[in-house]
Amino acid sequence: MRRLGDRFDARLIRDVDSIHFLMPFIYPRRADNEGYIKETIDLTEAMKFLEKKNAENDGYHYTMFQLVLTAILKILVLRPQLNRFIANGSMYQRNRISAAFTVKRKFEDTGDEGLAFISGLRVDTLDTIHQKMYEQIYQARKGSGGDAVDTINIFKKLPRFIGRTIIRFICFLERHGIVFESLTEGDPGYASVMLSNLGSIGMKAGYHHLSNWGTNSIFVVIGKMEKRPFYDQDGKVDMRMSVDLGLTVDERIADGYYYSKSVKLLKYLLEHPQELDRRLEEKPKMHKEK
């Protein structure tokens, strides 16, 4: 039930501790409160898992990007503080989980981009996320950029001074927490997490900034897959396929301990990918941390 102070897309956190109550007033801008986390993932089991999934599937292939996206959606369910944001000086818990990313329609310098927006459900699995991604990417490459791009295209057609005035007014409302649901639907700035797959264009992982527009609190950059040395407890080395993830997070929504456990869970899921065949709400069978 919606209460006074709640938003259309989130509920107000009313029992926040004193430190997190003060932080939005001391550090009001999201882009000024970025924390950076890098994690290297051993892809040995993930590569075997994908090979098996694709051998059983004649259609749209399962990819490493889909594994990463599903794993991130799962930790958003299991670690709900990650699905929070700060707006207008208050902390909110989202009503749903979502992920957004851009889709290059043509791999050319002049090729434009479309937006893909995935809404996750607690009962989703890798298979259902795989199907949702196929539908979103198909629509983006067919020419439909989604609701956010369609809205932007409307402003492009207006005289510049009119479009500029309207956008400034919308930004004013957004800064004060007054937003229109129709304008935020499909906007990647309002997703729980945004992703960029730099590995698809042969680049290493880096970090992407957060934005003061919208409510997005986490940005994940996926680098290219490459072999690198892994050492066991005896110092023996083994070359394995791996990938780096670069996470940029709003440090105001959770503390370092919470982030640490969340990133460890993300690493565990990607190194034990069979867990992603289970519903997002199901805790990993072998994960020991409470």
Descriptive account of the structure:
The protein has helices spanning 18-26, 44-55, 64-78, 126-142, 147-156, 160-175, 181-184, 256-271; strands at residues 10-12, 34-42, 84-87, 90-94, 97-104, 113-120, 193-197, 218-222, 226-231, 237-250. The longest helix is centred in the middle third of the chain and has 17 residues, at 126-142. Helix content is 34%, strand content 23%. 34% of the residues are buried. α3 (64-78) crosses α4 and α3 (64-78) crosses α8 (256-271). The mean pLDDT is 88. The chain has 290 residues and is of the alpha+beta class. The strands form 2 sheets. Strands 2, 5, 6, 7, 8, 9 and 10 form a 7-stranded mixed beta sheet that branches. A 3-stranded antiparallel beta sheet has the order 1-4-3, covered by helices on one side. It is globular. The chain has 8 helices and 10 strands.
Provide a concise account of the structure shown:
The chain has 290 residues and is α+β, with helices and mostly antiparallel strands.
Number of helices: 8
Strand residue percentage: 15-25%
Tell me, what's the shape?
globular
Radius of gyration: 20 Å
Give me the oligomer status: single chain
Through-space gap between termini = 30 Å
Key structural traits:
single chain; 290 residues; alpha+beta; seven-stranded mixed sheet; 8 helices; 34% helix
